[in-house]
Structure formats: structure tokens, C-alpha cells
Amino acid sequence: MNLSHVQSYLRDQGYDGWLLYNFRDLNPIAINVAGLSHGGSRRWFLWIPAQGRPAWLVHGIEGHMFEEARPELQGPRLRYVTWQEMAAALP
Question: From CA 5, how far away is CA 79, in angstroms rounded?
């Protein structure tokens, strides 16, 4: 995946970004785009903005697994533990 191409496409289409989501390996597209070997068992989100650095929202227990994500997708990783923290972190 080429991040600059994805971001260029997002801008050309007038999109603010692309939000990827996975829970219990149910979204193979998100897992593949992120470059992960598996999606884990907790919910995670990856925001790829039309401009700027990608950002993650990940569960505190599985935060380590995102170190293997594609290098171009490395960005801030906000961690949550409770569903309330997760909901508050989402736009």
C-alpha cells in the first residue's frame, strides 16, 4: 500500500479520510491494509486522513501488536480500556 497514493485519492474524491475498523478478525481488508498478520480480539480503528499522519485507536491489552503495522501507517496510538473510553475517543 502506498500511503501517498491513498491520501491523494481521498483528496481527489473530497473525503476527509478513511476509517478502518476491525473486531475479532472480521475485517480482512482492514487487517491487510494495516499490514498486520492478524487482527486481534479487541476492537481497533485506523484513521488515514487525506493529509497528515495516520492515527490508531487500540485496546490497551493489544497495543503491542500494532508495532508490526506497515511503517508508513505508524502514527499516534491512543489506547482505551473501557467502551466508554473508546466511544469518547471516536469523532
Answer: 28
Does the pLDDT of residue 91 top 80, yes or no? no
Provide the grid cell at 73: 501507517
- Domain made up of 3-89: CATH architecture: 3-Layer(aba) Sandwich (3.40)
Q: Where are the domains of the chain?
A: 3-89
Q: How many separate helices (H) and strands (E) can be counted in the chain? A: 3, 4
Instruction: Decide: pTM greater than 0.90.
Output: yes
Please give the angle made by the CA atoms of 60, 61 and 64, to the nearest 5 degrees.
Answer: 85
The 10s digit of each residue's pLDDT in 40-77 is 999 999 999 999 999 999 999 998 999 999 999 999 99
